[in-house]
Design brief:
Layout lengths: L4 E9 H14 L6 E5 L20 E9 L4 H17 L3 E2 L9 H7 L2 H10 L8 H5 L3 H10 L3
Antiparallel strand pairs: 1-3, 1-4, 2-3
Length: 150
């Protein structure tokens, strides 16, 4: 089911949000968009809160929800391209959205050292990581699609 719909919540600095909206309009043609202002949050946090320079600032949450490509490879490519453009513009995903980042890409964006300290502090190291929870295993998903076509 999750490969039939694009369901992403993304947060960007205000100064790059318009460029991102133009990108999604051109590439994904997904309307309407959800736009929600986010207040300034002080790091460390997984909440998207900093621009390219790392300073805390208000962000704009953009929700992309709608039908997606029915071709699995095209769907993954659209999501990977979306993540690349988001990163280029200083944005981050809200981490209840699926991610298609490699583990290395993910931890370059989200503070792994802070997160690991938090897991240790609350005795949560035996639980799956946030990366494990939100990342789509493209290989397993492809095998599942082959075995169980929609």
């Amino acid at each position: 089911m999750s490969f039939r719909y694009l369901i992403q919540d993304l947060s960007l600095p205000y100064d790059t949000a318009e460029s991102f909206i133009h990108y999604t309009s051109e590439k994904l043609k997904n309307w309407p968009l959800w736009l929600c202002p986010l207040r300034v949050m002080e790091p460390p946090t997984f909440h998207p809160c900093t621009g390219k320079d790392g300073s805390p600032q208000p962000m704009l949450n953009i929700g992309l929800w709608g039908a997606a490509s029915t071709d699995t490879n095209a769907f993954v490519r659209e999501n990977r391209d979306l993540e690349t453009r988001l990163t280029e513009l200083g944005g981050r995903k809200v981490l209840y959205s699926h991610t298609f980042y490699t583990e290395e890409e993910f931890w370059k964006l989200y503070d792994q050292q802070w997160y690991q300290r938090l897991r240790q502090r609350y005795s949560a190291t035996t639980l799956p990581t946030v990366y494990d929870k939100v990342n789509v295993d493209i290989v397993a998903q492809g095998q599942n699609q082959t075995r169980n076509p929609a």
